[in-house]
Amino acid sequence: MSSKQLKLFRYFDLPGRGEHITLALTVAGEKWDFEKVDFADWGKLKSDVEKCPLGFLPMMRLECGTWLSQSKAILRYIGDQHNMRGSTASESYKIDMIVSTSCGFLPTFGPYLYGLMKPDDPAQYFKDGCMKIMREVKFCQKVLMDNNGGKDFMVGNKFSIADAMLIPAIDIMFHHVPTFPEKFPGLVQYYQRMKMMPPIGKFYKDRKHDLYPGPKPKYTMTYFPLGGRGEQSAIAIALAGGELTWNAIQFGDWPKLKADEEKCPLGYMPMLKVESTGEELYSSLDILRFLGNEHGMYGKSHLDRAKIDMILDTQDDWKGNTDMEKAKRSLDYVQSLLMVNMMGKGFMVGDSVSIADCAMISSIDSFCVQQPTFAAAYPNLIAYFEHMKAIPQVGKYMAERKYNNAPPS
Prior knowledge:
Layout: E1 7-12, H1 19-28, E2 32-37, H2 39-46, E3 59-61, E4 67-69, H3 71-81, H4 89-102, H5 105-113, H6 122-132, H7 134-146, H8 161-176, H9 180-183, H10 185-194, H11 198-206, E5 218-223, H12 231-239, E6 243-248, H13 254-259, E7 271-274, E8 279-282, H14 284-294, H15 302-316, H16 324-340, H17 355-370, H18 374-377, H19 379-389, H20 392-400
């Protein structure tokens, strides 16, 4: 007996106009086969009216053998099939409106992303492109914020094809437009929250392509060969999709570097170099706050920021001193803050990842490594720690990091 025929997705070997379709299929739990179209063969296929009636891709063959064309039509079909087009007429309208509005975002940047042009100044190219669609992006953020204050999905209280369409679009702008996190914090927080959903996190973790191969933020950390005060910033850079070079200073070389006021102005580490500007940053928590501002991980409100700062300053006292008895009062307090926020099932502050989480991940890891009784004493912090490690970028960082929080030998 032959097995059931799967959907067949026909497209080029790149995400492009197909990513929102495959993302929706992934969230729906569907499997599909992929038929790769080489660019060299595209001219012939395009001219074949029988195999490619409308002369463009993507196309999808359904289980019954019927072929669908038009990317938005395919997406809407998947939405209908998997209850991703809203629960009311009003929700369906808003979803269709977001799909129609955001479908123009990819063509704005596509020619460069897919190697069809090489601008002299890629950064300016993306900045200009973002300006062209600024009105539409603002509108999308307004729709988001009007839905439960931006703390839910784009429309309603469950994943829809509006989310499938918008997440890849935000992914482009988040990684290529430096001012995007500052101008659109609501969309950035939403994007990061969506990537916390297991199927979406796995989708982006397993994605074959480095979809947007433009410049990633690059940093160089100068610090000892251990996690310590440098790791919280390393985690933030990992969450931002950046690249970090660790310039490890051996303990025997530290006195000489510390005495050099030109190379080490404040006489302590870590130091972080922002490769795009050449600037050197000092003071571990101020470095972390810079990264939070730069990459949309510093809260949505002044109160969020105050809570984040409170946690940063509190956990900083634990660095280099993981005596649980001395830290008991502050550990109990931070654990109580966690439990007040989403009953401990989310983040330290608010409804999306922040630099408070980056700091707490590193601190909890230090306690776990150096204090065998920590897990039993603070089960809620341990559950939170495991939840954070399930974020693809954090899990990857923890698995691949060269330096950890074990005491130096």
